[in-house]
User: Which sequence fits this backbone?
């Protein structure tokens, strides 16, 4: 139940909700993982995999839009499922979803050093120590800690500043993206697309698409983050605009990935790119013979990295605030800054966790990152299922078909990670990481206050 002393500040418009949705979704995978995407599917397989994945996620996006237009709560999934499922199920859905956002923050704190090292080789000097075979250097560590401090300070100072920060980063990325992809299409040669798929024959084409489709949910996670900031809409905001922002972000994300895959494949032989493990910027640099275009792409990637960090930081802190307000985790997480109207305790906690985890480097983050793919599937399924349950109670058929389709897609996302026979399913390390996070959530649940509370929100 919301307390009158726990109001977050209000100041977000439709523009900010779009940039938070899109910005929380698109990171730097399109630069550093292009070789993996093309090795899985080839140009056509990778393109069709992301486009098909985007289409399959539209029912989930539509359902989130309808739910958020009715329920504006920072707790998001816990609020959507309250009064529909048992309290333990609501908490489990929300706690699992927190992981999907929270793990991205330390990952980006580490990735900033990796990205800057492509521009400044000196970032690889001054080794400090080794974790799981990966060397942590002083410049990279300092870069990650500095970025964490900046994002934390921006969010501490208010949602309006964070929203402005997100707008500048997102639209800056889109301008640079338009510039280099237009150059790619103008200079591109369709002959370089051959072979279209990574594997021969009709069966190989389908397998190529499937192998890419499997990773799409991870790279498309974020459009639903709009609901986490829904309490912070400016006065007079039309609740229907939540759905518009979510849908637009999902479509824009799928289009972004499809366009960049096509542009890279048109300018550079994709089999060479895979064999030499090149990134997007290296492919463009070799194709154009210009280091300047590579620097342009890396600048776009830097903007993209910071905005996805900021977007996931906002989403995770709001969810912690929403759960803390229900006294299911430390009640101090519900504390709001009296001047800035931000969840200050959740922000400080998230900044501290991100900074401390950054010392581990990327080697130990990979298993937990993979767990994020399962986590978001659980959150999507809980939201779609709760919407179906509410509509049945109301005897209202609106949106049921989309929610049912979204639930099926979500089950598919979960199955791809938990069914052992599926390529890319959980390894032992990932099961351990998920078990540890679940055990922490169970500890919070078992030690929660037992006084009567009425939190149902229908």
Assistant:
């Amino acid at each position: 139940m919301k307390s009158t002393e726990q109001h977050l500040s209000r100041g977000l418009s439709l523009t900010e909700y779009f940039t938070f949705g899109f910005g929380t979704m698109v990171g730097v995978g399109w630069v550093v993982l292009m070789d993996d995407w093309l090795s899985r599917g080839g140009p056509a397989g990778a393109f069709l995999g992301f486009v098909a994945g985007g289409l399959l996620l539209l029912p989930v996006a539509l359902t989130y839009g309808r739910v958020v237009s009715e329920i504006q709560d920072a707790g998001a999934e816990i609020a959507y499922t309250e009064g529909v499922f048992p309290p333990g199920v609501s908490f489990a859905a929300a706690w699992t979803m927190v992981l999907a956002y929270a793990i991205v923050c330390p990952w980006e704190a580490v990735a900033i050093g990796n990205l800057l090292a492509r521009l400044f080789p000196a970032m690889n000097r001054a080794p400090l120590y080794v974790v799981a075979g990966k060397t942590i250097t002083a410049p990279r560590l300092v870069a990650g800690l500095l970025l964490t401090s900046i994002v934390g300070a921006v969010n501490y100072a208010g949602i309006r500043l964070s929203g402005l920060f997100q707008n500048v980063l997102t639209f800056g990325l889109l301008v640079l993206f338009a510039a280099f992809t237009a150059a790619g299409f103008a200079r591109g040669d369709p002959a370089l697309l051959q072979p279209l798929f990574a594997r021969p024959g009709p069966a190989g084409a389908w397998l190529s698409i499937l192998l890419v489709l499997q990773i799409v949910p991870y790279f498309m996670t974020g459009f639903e983050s709009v609901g986490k900031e829904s309490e912070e809409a400016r006065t007079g905001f039309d609740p229907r605009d939540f759905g518009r922002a979510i849908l637009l972000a999902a479509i824009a994300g799928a289009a972004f990935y499809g366009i960049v895959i096509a542009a890279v494949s048109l300018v550079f032989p994709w089999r060479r790119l895979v064999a030499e493990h090149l990134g997007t910027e290296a492919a463009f640099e070799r194709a154009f013979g210009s280091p300047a275009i590579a620097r342009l792409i890396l600048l776009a990637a830097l903007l993209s990295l910071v905005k996805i960090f900021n977007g996931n930081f906002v989403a995770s802190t709001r969810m912690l605030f929403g759960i803390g307000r229900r006294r299911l985790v430390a009640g101090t997480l519900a504390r709001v800054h009296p001047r800035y109207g931000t969840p200050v305790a959740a922000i400080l906690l998230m900044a501290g966790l991100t900074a401390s985890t950054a010392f581990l480097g990327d080697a130990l983050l990979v298993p937990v990152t993979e767990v994020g793919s399962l986590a978001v599937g659980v959150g999507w399924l809980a939201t779609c299922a709760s919407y179906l349950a509410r509509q049945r109670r109301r005897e209202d058929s609106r949106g049921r078909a989309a929610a049912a389709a979204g639930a099926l897609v979500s089950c598919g996302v979960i199955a791809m990670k938990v069914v052992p026979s599926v390529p890319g399913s959980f390894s032992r390390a990932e099961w351990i990481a998920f078990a540890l996070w679940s055990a922490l959530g169970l500890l919070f649940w078992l030690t929660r206050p037992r006084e009567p509370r009425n939190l149902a929100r229908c």
